[in-house]
C-alpha cells in the first residue's frame, strides 16, 4: 500500500510560498509591460500608415501563433549564441511580456472599437487633436470595457508562469519539481502546487466578479 507523506509538503511550505511570490512578481511585471506593449500595438494596428499597421499585425500574428515555451527557449537558450544573454528571471518576464502584449493588443483594440464612432467624429468636428481625443474620450470608456478581459488575462498569466520552469526559473512549479526530485515523492508536491495555483487564480477570479458587479 502506498503511503503518502504530506509532512514533506508542510516542511517545504516556505519554499513553495517563495515560489508563489516569484510567480506573482513575474505575473505583475508581465501585466505592466504587456499592457504598455499592447496599447502601443493596438494604436499601431489601427494606424492609417499601412507599414505601421502591417508591422503590428505581423508581430501579433507571430507571437500569438507560436507557443510561449518556444518563445522562452529562443530568448533564454538561443540568444546567447548571438552574444545576447539574459538571466532566467529577465528571460521569463521578457518572453511573457512580449507574448502577453500581443493578446492585450487585441483586447485594447476591441475596447476602442466598442466605443460609438460618432463620439470620435464629433471630437474631430470640434477640432480636438488626436491625443486629446484619445485621452479624454476614448481612454476612459475603453478602460472600463477592457478591465475585465485584462483581469482574465492576468489570471491566465499566473498559470502560464509554470511554463518558465522549463528555463530553470524557480517559480512555484519549479519549487514543486525540486521537492519531488529530491524526495522521490511526486504526488504530494504537485498536489500542493496545484492547490496554491488554484488559490491564486480564485482570488483574482473573485476580484473580477466584484469589478463586474460594480461596473454593471
Number of strands: 0
**Proportion of helical residues:** over 70%
C-alpha geometry: flat
- Radius of gyration, CA atoms, in whole angstroms: 21 Å
Name the helix and strand elements from N-terminus to C-terminus, one letter apiece. HHHHHHHHH
Give an overview in words.
Helices cover 80% and strands 0% of the residues. With 216 residues, it is mainly alpha-helical. The protein is flat, with a radius of gyration of 21 Å. The mean pLDDT is 91.
List keywords for this structure.
mainly alpha; single chain; 0% strand; 216 residues
Task: Give the helix/strand layout.
Layout: H1 6-11, H2 13-45, H3 50-65, H4 68-78, H5 88-113, H6 117-125, H7 130-160, H8 172-183, H9 187-215
Quick summary:
The chain has helices spanning 6-11, 13-45, 50-65, 68-78, 88-113, 117-125, 130-160, 172-183, 187-215.
